Amino acid sequence: MDNKSDFSKGSIYSHILQLAIPMTIAQLVQMLYSVVDRIYIGHLPGVSALALTGLGLTFPIVSLTNAFTNLFSAGGAPLSSIARGAGKKDEADRIMGNTFSMLLISSVLLMLFFFAFMRPLLFLFGASEATYPFARDYLSIYLIGTPFVMVGTGMNAFINAEGFGKTGMFTILLGAVTNIILDPIFIFIFGMGIAGAAIASVISQILSAAFVITFLSGRKTLMRLTPSIMKIDGKTVGKITGLGLAGFIMQASNGAVQISCTSTLRIFGSDIYVGIMTVLNSIRDMIALPAQGITDAAKPVIGYNYGAKEYDRITKATKFITAISVTYMIISWLALLLLPESFIRIFSSDEELIARGVNALHIYFFGFFMMALQFCGQTVFVGLGKSKQAIFFSLFRKIVIVVPLTLLLPRIGFGINGVFIAEPISNFIGGTACFVTMLIYSRRLFRKEKSGLLGK
Question: What's the rounded Cα separation, in Å, for the pair 264 and 241?
Fold first, then answer.
């Protein structure tokens, strides 16, 4: 086996960093698919606030698409790492093939569903007659790329899980650079506005997906994607979705939060506050990305070492990602407190949105560093293949805390600020609960399994 794919040997820190750097760059570039759209759209002359709000209304649909991608890729990739670590190559191949099949089938079904119910869904999410045309124009084109974005993003996880971090980075880089180049051409030069942003995204997604499939079908990969491993096996799919359900719920619950936020903001505020939330979500995605990169990189490393029964190395990995991610998030929080207007102006030139957005930003990002504890806790649970625990804390933070508070706080005297207050409360309670439970659970698990090995 290639040494770079044997995570049970050598420095655990080096393995994580070697994956984290290209994976973070890849995720940053991938994020540019949507962030660049928001930046350009937020600076459209005369209609920037309405267009940005319309784009924000599509986020729940994008989140649900990402949720189904995670259902299969976030379940399949760690399971394949565990199987490889245990020397079960045939099982690892079967997991990858079944993941591909489920990504393809679910993407087509989702695309058809959203086309059929686009208008009622967008109004459910908080659209008005003024913002609906912008959301419709973007989504009606963006949905065409659903199979490409799900297959491309989902199967790229297997490239990273095998240790080919640079290749995974290039996969995303190819599409994102294309999107960055095409966006201003379609939006401004061709005068297509928000529809032009969607066309650029679809073209970029097609290129990324084509590269992923070409690589995984070639001879350089450790697990080759062939028709023989794509035959759906119910037991294998059950394992994949069982573990991937945590990632699914994380993304689907993001959609639930976005729906509760946009609908409540429309009741207690106006369209501009939906635009503000779009900006805040964009800043959060951008700022949190390095912390997500380091924790995501640890998943295949932890999974491999768990399969190889190297428990002390998993403990070292946990301490490492926690120290880095928490420190980074504290620094980021301070930057947001000192330069709130500068961050907002990246995504909008509307002066009213900027003026109202500063206070919202201060509230929304209070104690931002606590989110890192949620990232770390979820990472270890997923890496160990413990789906029930990962699922519980995904639900706990978003569904049990954020959604009820978003709906309740504005109605008991906090007004529009109540929507933004819900986020920091969830970070403190959810992050602490997830991380502390992970520490206690993993220590007990390792102690028990070590005792079992000694007893043999």
Answer: 32
Which pair of structure tokens corresponds to residue 123?
């109004």
Six-digit token string for 35: 């962030």
CA distance 75 to 99: 9
Q: How many helices (H) and strands (E) does the chain have?
A: 18, 0
Does pTM top 0.85 for this prediction? no
CA angle 37/191/43 to nearest 5° reads 40
Instruction: Give 455's pLDDT tier (boundaries 50, 70, 90).
Output: low
* Cβ–Cβ under 8 Å, residues 252 and 395: no
Contact (Cβ atoms closer than 8 angstroms) between residue 196 and residue 187: yes
Q: What is the radius of gyration, based on Cα positions, of the chain?
A: 21
Residue 345 has pLDDT above 90, yes or no: yes
pLDDT at 164: 84
Q: What b/e sequence results for 373-383 when a residue is b if at least 16 CB atoms lie within 10 Å of its CB, and e otherwise?
A: bbbbbbbbbbb
Give the SS3 label for residue 454. helix
Distance CA 171, CA 152 (A): 8
116, 360, 433 from 330: Cα distances, Å: 44, 19, 19
Asked if 343 contacts 361 with a C-beta cutoff of 8 angstroms, the reply is: yes
Average pLDDT of the chain, as a whole number: 90
> What are the CA-CA distances from residue 454 to residues 35, 154, 447, 448, 449 (Å)?
52, 39, 11, 10, 9
- pLDDT tens figures, 105-127: 999 999 999 999 999 999 999 88
**pLDDT one-digit tens code per residue, 240-252:** 998 888 678 777 8
Q: Which stretch, 78-92, 282-296, 373-387, 409-423, has highest mean pLDDT?
A: 409-423
* Torsion over CA: 128, 277, 259, 404 (sign): negative
What residue numbers bound the domain in which 136 lies? Answer: 3-455
- Number of domains comprising the chain: 1
